Amino acid sequence: xxxxxxxxxxxxxxxxxxxxxxxxxxxxxxxxxxxxxxxxxxxxxxxxxxxxxxxxxxxxxxxxxxxxxxxxxxxxxxxxxxxxxxxxxxxxxxxxxxxxxxxxxxxxxxxxxxxxxxxxxxxxxxxxxx
Length: 130
Fold this sequence. Notes:
Layout: E1 7-10, H1 13-24, E2 26-33, H2 34-38, E3 48-55, E4 59-65, E5 77-82, H3 85-96, E6 100-107, E7 113-118, E8 124-129
Parallel strand pairs: 1-4, 5-8
Antiparallel strand pairs: 2-3, 3-4, 6-7, 7-8
Helix pairs in contact: 1-3
InterPro entries: Glyas_Bleomycin-R_OHBP_Dase, PhnB-like
Protein name: VOC family protein
Domain PhnB-like: 11-128
């Protein structure tokens, strides 16, 4: 069985990863530049080629500095479910800093505590609690 691993092409992978680690908790698992991993000696040598962060427990997100211009994606949403409304609200508030709230986090008619936002990097997040 395969495992889904979100991989984000970023204008600034280090800043974006730091933001997610601050907002969601977690840790930097690994980071390597083009120079370190490929022995590159050109204008991209210091750009992040591969970075792995663990957020909200054992949820892994991969990031890399984009070589070409990046359009903030609206065709993908990342969803994290929490065990409590307090945890969900805290993550939601932190991720919303500098971004845009699409749907406030609150109890929905379908019985789920839910909120949706677009973070300051253009990534959509759906935050839930049972």
